[in-house]
Amino acid sequence: MIGGALMAESLHKLGVRNMFTLHGGHLDPLLIGCKALGIHLIDTRHETTAGHAAEVIAMLQPGEVGVCAITAGPGFTNALTAMASAHINALPALFIAGAPPTRDAETNALQGGFSQLPMAVPVTKWAHKILSGDRIPDLVEKAMRIARTGRPGPVLLEVPIDVMFRDVSRVLFPIGEKPTEPARPAPSHRDAEAFLAALSTSERPVLIGGTGAITSGASEAIGRFAEQTGIPVLTNSKAHGLLPNDHPAYAGPAGTLATLAMSGEPRPDLVILAGARAGLLLGGRSNAIIPKDARILQIDIEADEIGRMNPVEVGLAADCAQTFAVLNQLAGERSWPDRAQWQAALAKARASDPFGLADPVCASGRLHPHHAAKAVFDAIDTDATVVVDGGEMTAWCEPLNRASRPGGYLTAGYLGTLGFGPGYAIGAALARPDAPVFLLVGDGALGFHIQEFDTMARHGLPIITIIMNNACWAMSKNGQDLVFGEDRLVAVELSDRPYEDVAKALGCEGERVERLEDIEPAIARAIASGRPACINIATDADVVHPITFGMAGTDPSKGKIAMPYYQNENG
């Protein structure tokens, strides 16, 4: 058996059934070995897309590790963005990269000339070059274990082409038919009791779930905890669907707390962060979501996260699912106050619609982005997986999401990557073939990987891509207007293109929509077709979402320019 075939056998033994890739000769023994074993190969048109598809698997199948194989040199560098995204979003993925022969080091070989591993080290949990075929099985098992153990994240195995093609006469450290899974850490009863004691003294507590709650599979346990304690549950943008949208305890996106603050109603006096990290997705340093004076209880498998940006009263360095199993056992031994009034206050804040009275059709004749997004979500089943890729349009979409399954609403997260959407959608279509997949994307973000319409068509993935087309980079355009004044735009304007024709040329269905009442029928036709489809919706470029005022910095005073995207010094 040659090295690549042995690697395929090792992956199969470890439960891998899908692998995302883009062909390169370095990979042939691995790819052929995978096909022979029944591992489904999904070849994309760009390595970044293949990496993003692997990155998202654990959000839809907790406990699983997505696998991406890319060739050496430019294939590797193309995938670095996906590695960085998986790293900062704490998502497990195995990247397998080709490399020139080991004997050709420092010879200016094809797709060589630089060291790949040092580039990967900052954005992976572990990066290793396999130098001997007899070590392939145990190093593949180690990589998979590192990716999903502790705080999840990406790992890289670099396999030189000579190791891929060379015969392997023996295996030094065989892996078992059923490799041992490391136990996931749970809190002690003493620490769990301290956690519950702190919660019992609060009047207006909330629980905010994040990625760690999804990837640990904590959804059901958190639902039971909310039912026992009456605590309202919110989610950051990486965790929508943690509880069903209509669950009595679900209070919507974490941004609901910012709406509550603007209404003048009392804010939370205690916040539980459950696998949700302080930072961008929870309002950063602004205290718009987490009040400055709120007590904090935190659960995170990574101890380094506990206490980031806020003092923590009780911190549990443990797995979310294991933690709530313990908390549920102990919470049943306590009595909890009726929190119906507090839940109602949050429900009222969540239901507010500041854009509902706006004219659905703008002066330009194009659709108001809020009304267009609302019509889209009204036409999507709550069991669907929705991927949202873009800048300002993501802010229009988030309050409207109705995800009812963990991983049902997928966004870029902390890296702020644009163009990740096709990869996430392809990964979702493979991970959840029983549910429809929708990609909601701005026309700017679509341009990064528009060629993936071909991937969707070739592999029969009935992903419905819905473009919010305002012919510009909306957040950047509106931000420039706010910071520098109007009529000084630079590098933010696009042209209104018939993207639906591109989709049709690449094997998909496609149509353009310009009227609000045509959105639902267009989506119904796309679903009925059973094929990948593109719906290009004309939206207005001049409507500014309130979040852009914050992203543009404070209002610039005379002679002073505010710093966009980050909190200003006087903020």
The main β sheet shows up as: 6 strands, parallel
Shape: globular
How many domain units?
3
Hey, roughly how much beta strand do the residues contain?
Answer: 15-25%
The number of helical runs is 23
Number of strands: 18
Straight-line N-to-C gap: 63 Å
Write the CATH architecture name of the largest domain: 3-Layer(aba) Sandwich
**Poorly predicted ranges:** none
Classified in CATH, the superfamily of the largest domain is: Thiamin diphosphate (ThDP)-binding fold, Pyr/PP domains
| Alpha carbon gyration radius | 24 Å
Structural class by sheet pairing and helices: alpha/beta
Strand order in the largest sheet: 2-1-3-4-6-5
Under CATH at level 1, the class of the largest domain stands as: Alpha Beta
- Estimate the mean pLDDT confidence: 92
Q: Which quaternary structure do these chains form?
A: single chain
Helix content percent band: 25-40%
What fold name stands as the CATH topology of the largest domain?
Rossmann fold
Structure explained in plain terms:
The protein has 23 helices and 18 strands. With 571 residues, the chain is α/β, with parallel strands linked by helices. It folds into three domains: 3-165, Thiamin diphosphate (ThDP)-binding fold, Pyr/PP domains (Rossmann fold, 3-Layer(aba) Sandwich); 189-351, 3-Layer(aba) Sandwich (Rossmann fold), CATH 3.40.50; 369-551, 3-Layer(aba) Sandwich (Rossmann fold). A six-stranded parallel β-sheet has the order 2-1-3-4-6-5, with helices on both faces. The protein has a six-stranded parallel β-sheet with strand order 9-8-7-10-11-12. Strand 17 (509-513), helix 22 (519-529) and strand 18 (533-538) form a beta-alpha-beta unit. It is globular.
